[in-house]
Write a structure and sequence with these properties.
Layout lengths: L19 E4 L8 E4 L3 E2 L6 E9 L15 E7 L3 E8 L6 H6 L5 E7 L6 E8 L3 E10 L6 E3 L2 E3 L11 E5 L1 E2 L3 E13 L4 E10 L3 E4 L2 E4 L4 E2 L9 E2 L4 E2 L9 E2 L23 E8 L2 E7 L11 E9 L6 E3 L5 E3 L9 E5 L6 E9 L13 E7 L11 E6 L4 E5 L11 E8 L5 E7 L3 E4 L7 E10 L2 E2 L6 E4 L6 H6 L1 H8 L19 E5 L2 E2 L16 H8 L12 E5 L4 E7 L7 E7 L6 H14 L10 E5 L6 E5 L6 H7 L6 H20 L12 E3 L5 E3 L4 H7 L1 H7 L11 H6 L4 H16 L11 H9 L12 H10 L10 H13 L13
Helix pairs in contact: 4-5, 7-11, 7-14, 8-9, 11-13
Bound molecules: 2',3'- cyclic AMP.
2',3'- cyclic AMP binds next to strand 40.
């Protein structure tokens, strides 16, 4: 190609620029070519070509445009020429610009790839333009050598495609290694490192400082790849060399595999302290304090070695397998143990040893014991182990049994307890001096449970296990089964029990009947009003056990009571297993009257012992704050619990809850106690859905001084739950409790709905007076609503008694389809 320099262009600094020019705009059929030399690719598969050029505006040419062009072509050749692109100028120059000698320089970049040969030619084709090519720069991009996250990535040539990423695996620098996976980076066509994956970390014994791995100094260690830096050795350990991956324990100190590397080395504990024993017949309760020195560990456990002192100084013999340790003999976590079934009148020596996680390693560490010598007392007989059935009739069973294995004295008599199977809340006890007897007055074709225990001058032994025997069938079977209540009425006058039958006894045998845990005969146990005590403190201590505050830990606040916060936490009474309790506290600054009122509840609650009455564990009165400790009910109060679990229970589950409440109320009414504030909010629910009656605070005040109750606490009278006669003239009786129970039934069946909704108390009194009654809750079985309505009879003597309610609910639970007729449970 012939190159025609048109003029010598200059740059901004007026320096001449050498260019290749062509300008044959007036001549026809131009085809001028400019070729480069062969350009080596150096392995690049994609190259960039940057052109700088000027181009003359055809319109500005004197004498018309003619064949003038304003573009030129760029081509490349590996094996043959291929057009890369037609290049046009962003800016073209005119005559005027020429005169001013101002360059209107254009820059265009094109990329080229994939290249397959070692090199190529470039060529520029002019078809009749006026061009000056100032520069052609051919280059390719690389991702440069890089050290990142302790990994080296080599200088890398990008791939041939425009958006291709080339994955490069890095090499970990000295003394480092990949964490989880080898480190990787990606080289883009723009020569940039992108998307880092994985990383290297210094190997253990080294730490990263300024991008390289430096050895840990003496006294320091690094054991985990995940930790950043070397750490100082924990107490009682050392690292004698640089680059340590762990520290070794000083003499006399140890570590077990499960100890974390940053934990101090530890040693075995010293002996337990302040060991004491408490003998109860043939049981010994041992208690001690934690060792002075735990060895720096939290896993201190205790082992007991029990040895019997042989008579006449013949030495010691290990206690045999018959001795029981509660909760166990070795590995005790608490500082007490109950040792049971020792021999009576025998000397024992106990060694108490404290151990911890490193005791096994410290072979040469002399074991440290504390020793206790104990003499057991007279003991009750061991349980009767065999009870046999003899002659059996339709209403009698003959029994015989063997003397206990260890009578521990002369047997004075035996007690035989029996009840109809699955009716264990009501049982009968008879006594016999012989090892046999005939039990009479039983129901035909019925299964009975029998248990026997022996008594010596040391007291009763434990009952035998349960033995199950059945009576023979009865010819008038159907009538008997039809309604046990009819039979009961005729044969067992003092016992108002559904399905209960009385045994006829030998006059020799003394007989007592038990009704849900308390003796019913010869006299019915009744509730004693704490008011009958001159000194209220005496009443509290008569019925409530004083608990040392050190046995209680308050863990959280669960609510607010009338006198202070209600909390919960564990109670650890010596010799008893730990239980969760609720703790009612009396807030500071109380008056003497408030203290009495607060403890009053405990004096009442302490008299009750029934599975459906909240159990009092004891009181704390000797330290402050004064507390009432009761069993803990995981699900809190019934009304809140039901609201939280709307529509979550089956009818049978709800009836089961109601049955429990009725059973608790039956017990209270049998005790002669009128609750006066029975409502779902005063029922507590445990984790097994067992409902228990609570809140024994209000009744006393009303009983004591009705006027005062109405003036000072009038707002608290639970109008919606209270029977009309109790509202009108304070006639509080078990029958008014039954009315309240009907309201509780309604609350339960409607999952905690407020009785009479938002009606005012005045409107409720008026509506009830005018015979309005709450409607049946949604999905409430007809039979249950009937029962509620019966509880709300205006005439209180027409309301059912609690034992009838229990009986009816039992029937409903046994056969949900039963249409309940109260008459079936009348006595
Ligand atoms: O509805 P709750 O959770 O149940 O809130 C009240 C709160 O304390 C104030 O009385 C709860 N509460 C009371 N006695 C006990 C208990 N024995 N067990 C569990 N929670 C209790 C009650």
């Amino acid at each position: 190609m012939r190159i025609i320099p048109l003029s010598i262009p200059i740059d901004e600094d007026y320096a001449p620029i050498h260019t290749y020019q062509v300008c044959r705009v007036m001549e026809q059929n131009q085809n001028n070519w400019l070729h480069t030399n062969w350009i080596l690719t150096e392995g690049a598969q994609r190259v960039f070509i940057e052109l700088k050029f000027t181009l003359r505006d055809c319109n500005s040419l004197p004498g018309g445009v003619g064949t003038c062009k304003e573009t030129f072509n760029m081509a490349m050749k590996e094996s043959r020429y291929i057009k890369i692109d037609t290049i046009a100028a962003d800016e073209s120059f005119t005559e005027l610009d020429l005169g001013d000698r101002v360059m209107k320089l254009n820059t265009e970049v094109r990329d080229l790839g994939p290249l397959t040969h070692k090199g190529f030619y470039l060529a520029f084709q002019d078809l009749g333009a006026c061009i000056a090519l100032v520069s052609v720069r051919v280059f390719y991009k690389r991702c440069p050598f890089l050290v990142k996250s302790l990994a080296e990535f080599q200088d890398t040539i990008p791939g041939s495609e425009a958006s291709q990423l080339v994955e490069v695996v890095g090499r970990c620098v000295n003394n480092s290694l990949p964490l989880y996976e080898p480190p990787r980076m990606h080289c883009s066509t723009e020569g940039e490192w992108l998307v880092p994956i994985g990383k290297c970390v210094c190997q253990t014994g080294f730490e990263e400082i300024n991008g390289s791995c430096q050895v840990c100094k003496v006294g320091f260690y690094r054991s985990l790849l995940e930790s950043l830096a070397c750490s100082k050795c924990p107490p009682h350990s050392m690292a004698r060399q640089a680059g340590s991956t762990a520290c070794s324990c000083e003499d006399g100190y140890y570590k077990i595999d499960s100890d974390p590397p940053n934990m101090a080395c530890t040693r075995p504990p010293s002996a337990p302290r302040n060991a004491i024993s408490n003998v109860n017949e043939t049981s010994v309760f041992l208690e001690w304090s934690v060792p002075m020195e735990t060895g720096g560990r939290k896993d201190v456990r205790y082992n007991i070695l029990c040895r019997r002192v042989l008579p006449d100084g013949r030495g010691l013999e290990e206690c045999g397998p018959n001795v029981r340790f509660l909760p166990r003999r070795v590995g005790l976590t608490n500082t007490s143990v109950m040792v049971a079934d020792l021999q009576s009148h025998t000397n024992y020596s106990f060694l108490l040893e404290a151990v911890n996680g490193v005791s096994e390693l410290a072979k040469d560490h002399a074991k440290q014991y504390v020793s206790l010598n104990v003499t057991t007392n007279q003991a009750a007989p061991s349980p009767v182990s065999v009870v046999r059935k003899g002659l059996t009739g339709k209403s009698s069973i003959a029994l015989s049994w063997a003397e206990p294995d260890r009578p521990n004295g002369i047997i004075l008599e035996y007690e035989i307890k029996y009840f109809e199977k699955e009716q264990d809340s009501s049982y009968t006890i008879i006594k016999s001096k012989e090892t046999e007897m005939e039990v009479e007055g039983l129901k035909p074709s019925s299964v009975y449970i029998f248990q026997v225990r022996a008594r010596t001058s040391a007291g009763y032994g434990a009952f035998s296990r349960r033995f199950e025997f059945q009576t023979s069938p009865y010819c008038e079977y159907t009538r008997q089964r039809y309604c046990t209540l009819t039979v009961m009425r005729s044969c067992a006058p003092p016992f108002r029990r559904c399905g209960y039958s009385k045994a006829k006894q030998d006059p020799e045998e003394e007989k007592m009947h038990f009704h849900n845990g308390h003796i019913k005969f010869p006299g019915v146990r009744t509730y004693i009003d704490p008011l009958t005590y001159e000194d209220p403190n005496q009443a509290v201590h008569e019925f409530a056990q004083e608990i040392d505050v050190s046995f209680i830990s308050i863990e959280r606040i669960i609510g607010a009571g009338e006198f202070g916060e209600v909390c919960s936490g564990p109670l650890r009474l010596p010799g008893k297993r730990e239980i969760q309790v609720a703790i009612k506290t009396l807030k500071a600054g109380y008056t003497e009257q408030q203290r009495r009122d607060f403890l009053w509840e405990a004096s009442i609650m302490g008299q009750f012992n029934h599975p459906n009455i909240i159990r009092l564990e004891g009181v704390v009165t000797k330290s402050k704050p004064v507390m009432i400790i009761t069993e803990y009910m995981e699900n809190g109060s019934l009304d809140t619990f039901l609201k939280k679990n709307d529509a979550q229970f089956t009818v049978i589950q709800l009836v089961g809850m109601l049955r429990g409440i009725a059973s608790g109320m039956r017990y209270l009414s049998d005790m002669g106690y009128v609750h006066r504030d029975l409502a779902a909010r005063n029922i507590l629910v445990n984790s097994n859905l067992v409902c228990k009656v609570s809140d024994f605070g209000l009744s006393r005040v009303l009983e004591d001084d009705p006027e005062a109750a109405y003036t000072t606490r009038g707002g608290k009278i639970p109008i919606r739950w209270t029977a009309p006669e109790a509202i009108a003239y304070r006639k509080f009786t078990s029958a008014s409790d039954v009315w309240s129970y009907g309201i509780v039934m309604w609350e339960v069946m409607s999952y905690g709905e407020r009785p009479y909704w938002e009606m005012s108390n005045q409107d409720v009194i008026k509506a009830v007076e005018e015979s309005y009654r709450l409607p049946g809750p949604m999905d409430c079985p007809e039979a249950l609503y009937h029962l509620m309505m019966d509880c709300w009879q205006r005439e209180r003597s027409n309301r059912p008694k609690f034992d009838e309610i229990v009986c009816l609910l039992d029937k409903l639970i046994r056969n949900p389809r039963t249409h309940l007729l109260i008459n079936q449970c009348h006595i």
